[in-house]
Amino acid sequence: MVINALFAFVHFAAVFGIFSTVVYELLTMSRTPTLAEAQRIQLCDRWYGISAGVVLVVGLLRVWYFEKGAAFYQANAFFHAKMTLFIIVGLLSIYPTMRFIKWRQHTRQGQPPVVSEQEYTRIVLILRAELALLLGMALCASLMARAVGV
Fold first, then answer.
1. CA angle, 73 then 90 then 125, to 5°
2. Nearest CA to 58 among 118, 5, 7, 126?
3. Which of 67, 99, 106, 143 could form a disulfide with 78 if both were Cys (CB 3.0 to 4.6 A apart)?
4. How far apart are CA 12 and CA 58, in angstroms?
5. pTM score, two decimals?
């Protein structure tokens, strides 16, 4: 029973980690980021990846070994919707992450990155979409936990 609670805590903490890193990236992103802002966004994006990995691994462990059992989740439409949204968020996050990685050529030289208007607009749009989809995942999780969709 305690192990279930600990896994749930780690899972929820990692979910909050994902959400907070996306919010931070969105609030920090600018058309002309300073070197310090760019470095913080890059660090934040690493934590995003770590949090996403923890959510995935711990979530799958919860499905297979804890909680209600794999059969419950496999039969639940909201579990599948939540997983689909998770995959979409992951795919959307590729573009900003690749851009932040590309910034390294500037930040390693102590220079701020050069961000085009198109790049800025695309990153902000993607981060906003990720936040909306993450909220959708939270709704799916709540409905799933109450056996709606079974």
1. 125
2. 7
3. 143
4. 10
5. 0.89
Question: What's at 135, amino acid-wise?
Answer: L
- Burial (0-12, 13-18, 19+ Cβ within 10 Å), 22: buried
Specify the higher pLDDT residue, 66 or 30: 30
Residues in the chain: 150
Query: How far is residue 37 CA from its own chain's centroid?
Result: 20
Two tokens at 12? 């929820």
- Taking only the tens place, the pLDDT of each residue in 70-118 is 888 888 999 999 999 999 999 999 999 999 999 999 999 999 999 999 9
Tell me the C-alpha distance between 54 and 127, whole Å: 20
**Quick check: 108 and 114 in contact, CB under 8 A?**
no
- Which amino acid, one-letter code, is at 18? I
